[in-house]
Amino acid sequence: MDEDRSGAAGGASPAPTGDAEVESSVETWLGHIKVLAGDIGARLPTSEGEARALDYCERVLREAGLRPRTDSFVSTGSVFRPHLPAAAGFLLAFALYPVAFPLTAYAAAAMAAFFLFCEVRELTLRPNPLHALLPKRPSRNVFAVVEPSQAVRRDIVLIGHVDTQRTPLIFRSAGWMKAYRAFSVLAFASFVLQPLAYLGGAVFGWNWAWPASGAAAVSAVLLIALCLEAEASPSTMGANDNATGAGLVLTLAGELASRPLSWSRVWCLCSGCEEAVHEGAKAFFAAHRGRMPNPKAVAFEMLGCDGPAWAVKEGFVLPLSSDPGLRRLAARVAAENPELGARPAHLSGGVTEMSDAILAGVPAITLIGLTPEGTAPHWHRPSDTVDKMDPGAMARNYRFVQALLRAMDTPELEPPG
Fold this sequence. Notes:
Elements lengths: L18 H22 L7 H16 L5 E7 L7 H14 L6 H21 L13 E10 L7 E8 L12 H31 L4 H4 L1 H19 L6 H20 L5 E8 L7 H10 L6 E7 L7 E6 L5 E2 L2 H13 L6 E5 L5 H7 L4 E5 L22 H18 L9
Parallel strand pairs: 3-4, 3-5, 5-9, 6-8
Antiparallel strand pairs: 1-2, 2-4, 6-7, 6-9
């Protein structure tokens, strides 16, 4: 890793804690957000905007005295598109079932089971066979590594994605989000029951099996409609989600370049295509996990309007939990800094790159700017613009991140969480 050293030597200097220093750091952070979400604007996965944003991140890291590197990968460019072939498959199974009973009933059961398997893989960010049917476009990650001033006791990966999402109907209001969550649970249940009903119909002659599976057919039609509507919606400018995450990574990288941690090697990662199927984070951990003997990961999401909060759990159909050890550490830091108002939170309706780290065997947590009611300000909405950023919330989040990093930077190796 010598080629990635920051060049800093000696003991680590104290992290910025004074009001003037924090204000300066927040100003730098806000400057990055203005470039990403203002000057560049929309940054859909695999788009020219995303490429320009990654160019900017690479330039900032180099100007900080670091040696940025890139990982290239390919992406579908959409989180919605991969659900279309599965939904079409559920519809095809429904149409096939009664054609030449019972042979087509067995075939429909096998078909529905296969597409259910693919959908579960998609929802849990695991490889999905249906991805082979989808066109891909190139994207990349940009990252730099800052070596510790003393010795490497652990690796800390700081992640902030640069890309933006579209503005689908399901994110327009709290009511639409509640309706979407309810639909997702009911639709998933209908997809699970479809192959079971078809198999029972073929084996036991259940007369109600095919009519009952109409729920899966209706769910599939609605899923196709929702995905197509989302694909046709315009992009958000993505100031809060997630120029704040990438901008914070850049801000911390510049500070760590001159004041590295003592015992922790820090990977400062600006990832691409999180808003597709997280291909950037997946590619990063696939390429570099083996070089991290004792890794931790901290993902930054939507930190410009509220917070600080840390994710206890994310997702709502097949949720994942953050690392228990990092949750305990975050709670300790919150107790030691009560003026920050840091709190645990649950992210319902989405997943962050914390999940990719966990699936790669890396203990992880997400720091996120959810409101006390658990909502995400301007999430995938046209209103997600630079003028909505709250310097007060950003200062609180910055202080919490700094305190958490200092708490993680100990010479002792932590026991498994």
